[in-house]
Amino acid sequence: MIKRVEINYRGIFQKTLAKRIGGDIVMIAARMGQVGFSNGRYSDAPERNGIPCKYFAFVSPDLSEEELEAECGAKLDIDEANISVVLDDTMVKGVEPWAWHGVRPINEKVVPYGYLLIVSRRRPEELVRFMARKPYPYYLAILEGEASFAGLWVYRDDLTHERVLGALAALDPQLLSIEAVKGYLWDKTHEEHRVQAAQKAYESVRHNVHEVTPLQGIDWPYEIPKLPKWHEFPEGVVVKAVPREFHLGPKGQSRNQLFKRGTTKSQRPVVRFDLCTKCTLCWLECPDQCFDPTPDGTYDVDYEYCVGCGKCAEVCPVQECIVMVDELAFEDNRSPWEHWKRDPEGYVRWAEEKKGTHRVLPNVVTGTGQRVVEVEPVPAGGKPKPAARAGA
Amino acid sequence: MAVAQPVGVYEREDLLTGCQAVAEGIRLANVDVIAAYPIRPYTEVMDAISKIIADGKLVAEYIVADSEHSQFEIVKHAASVGARAFAGSSGTGWMYGFEALVVTATDRLPVLFLVGNRALDDPGAFGVEHNDALAIRDMGWLLCWVATAQEALEHVLLGYRIAEDREVRMPMALAMDGAFLTHSQHIVRIPSQEAVNRFLPPFDLGERRLHPDNPVSIAPQVNEDWVMEIRRQNWEAARRARGVIATAYEEFNQVFGQRYRPPYSFEEFLTDDAEVVLIGMGTVAMPARTAVRRLREQGHRVGYVNLRWFRPFPTEELRESLRRFRAVGVIDRDFAHGAPDDGGVLLHEVRSCLYPVRERPAVVNFITGLGGRDVSIQDAIRMYEITQEAARKDRLDGFVTWVGVRE
Lengths: 392, 407
Ligand code: SF4
Ligand code: SF4
Fold this sequence. Notes:
The complex is a heterodimer. Chain A has helices spanning 15-31, 65-72, 124-128, 160-171, 178-189, 192-206, 281-285, 311-315, 336-342, 344-355, and strands at 3-10, 35-40, 52-60, 81-86, 110-120, 138-144, 209-212, 267-271, 291-293, 299-301, 322-326, 358-361, 371-374. By secondary structure, chain A is α/β, with parallel strands linked by helices. In chain A, a hairpin with a 5-residue loop joins strand 9 (291-293) and strand 10. Chain A starts with a strand and ends in an 18-residue tail after the last strand. Chain B folds into 2 domains: 10-256, Thiamin diphosphate (ThDP)-binding fold, Pyr/PP domains (Rossmann fold); 266-403, Rossmann fold (3-Layer(aba) Sandwich). The longest helix of chain B has 34 residues, at 223-256. Chain B is globular and about 65 Å long. Chain A binds chain B through residues 19, 22-23, 26-27, 30, 35-40, 42-43, 45-46, 65-67, 69-71, 73-76, 227-231, 237, and chain B through 1, 13, 15, 40-41, 122-123, 126-127, 148, 178-180, 183-187, 283-287, 289-290, 293, 372, 374-377, 405-407. Residues 269, 286, 288, 290, 301, 306-312 of chain A line the site of one iron/sulfur cluster.
């Protein structure tokens, strides 16, 4: 028997976290007399900030390591997962990696009555409504918590790692027993709070498992790309350029239709067009050229292409004009500028509701944690004010 | 493969990628000089070594070069003064340093290089393909493939033992499949320093060592007068290497238990009563072995041969082994466009090795897994079926099949 665990993570930000979880699954399973190994989906590298990536762990109670490896070792991706872990809940909207996979459902690999374990503060129905319908039932398990983001060179030691191990023990005690998880963490660190974090997650996840029926979820809107045969594309690795075109207004610039990369974002910029001073900075600075110039001099956002980097919000000189908001607050990728044109007051109300009243300021010094401040919404017809800068 | 292990020869078990396993081997071999320049998938080796040095577990010169060419020149020179040296690369980076690589062999300097096999891009491609390491095959090098992280660590030790032997003194390329081995985490048994010291003697370049107390000049101008004799010497060393390889594995087994079985240069899997075998190098062994198990359940007499040492090629042993079968399917994770019959590199080696045998098995060829494309169990079963068909029909026409290409 082979147990396959898939760990979906956001490229760079959660790379070390996913690798440690995968590796520790193998080490803990070994304490229980099982064999295992772990690897990442190689085609995900070189990772780009936030892009959906995968790590895997393979465990077997009865096969030899050689047999386990022979079955699972020389493959780029898996066909099925007994448990799919999701380290950032915004990935329920779909995962589109670098390589030519298209936008895939987050639950794609989960087997009948397998588990999708998501780190989230949301209720199950708030997550299932974005996910693909599956032809068979499976379980959604929720590990209460925020997505743990760090970066390539820093590791955020916020116990997500230990908590995921505890949660896995709750879902499949044959894969990892909670005793083995705790014993391993203690032997490795001699730190009681790590053991406790795993134990608490183990207890809480057991009460947060929900069956998802074949009736729940959506019809998946994305197609899986079909790759050409060897004789169907030009010789010499020549790729036709995207035809150049430009007009003012939404989607007025030509963009690559084959790789939209929008599932890279965990946040998106909400723009208050009424506060915009038309300074052009967002349009100039967006690394992915997501801003479309419009006839009135403001800039529309093409959310299908936005990767959520936050650069636009950082450079916008106007207070409250561009604010990054959790991606799961949005149902679609429609043009915000068209919405504003159609119904200026309704749009402002909508935008303020999405933005809420709390803003997370970026870290001033790494390791000092986030600063959250409360803000007053700027009413429709309010005047643009210079943006307050982080650290000020 | 692994059988008995005497107590005390292993220090601990740890979870390591293939790259990290190589780095542990470098630590245990107490390497003196490491030259580094990044290219995936080799990069993780240099990362892991730098961490080992930073953690105070190895004292070594760690030099970050400005290119692969400089990187390889640095270790070549380091070896000439008697330092145990290490470098590595992948794909086009390896090719960029080629001028330095070929002269390292002529100068007979036993440096160990790790080649994390990677496609030769353009286009941007990172997956495994064997053409990078194979390019060194005619240059007087030792060239060996490993298929697991444990073997990777052990072959760093074996590699230095063989390359530095007085009878050999040749540079050694240790090749491992990008991604499937370099980046896969496995539990690896890490030998104790004491056990390694029993197996691996210190590097001694003897009378050839460049040192103020031993004034010598290496590689002066020779024009047309000496080259032929130099090549003849190199050939002799490559021939002697075959014997040294066997001795080294025997010594290794004495210290670490029966880790490896003769003939060492390759490894057979369920071949005893086999009629048909596939032969390949590296991690393609994984799907091939699973295919063997499944086909045997259905009564097919098939086996697998994992070729480890490509240079020197184990001519005699492999000839004696393969002649027992009715058909041999050669798996090439490489290409040799325009070569005889348009087969891959390994095909020509195996076929030429079998040529002196009067009753030869039928030999067919598979080009597969290029650029990191995975070779599935189903692909391997198909290769067995084609090879079985060749055995029945003794058919040699159209014998190269591309497996896994979209067509
Ligand atoms: S967050 Fe802003 S700058 Fe970044 S990709 Fe999206 S629109 Fe562009
Ligand atoms: S940066 Fe802000 S103010 Fe400047 S054009 Fe963009 S939205 Fe308007």
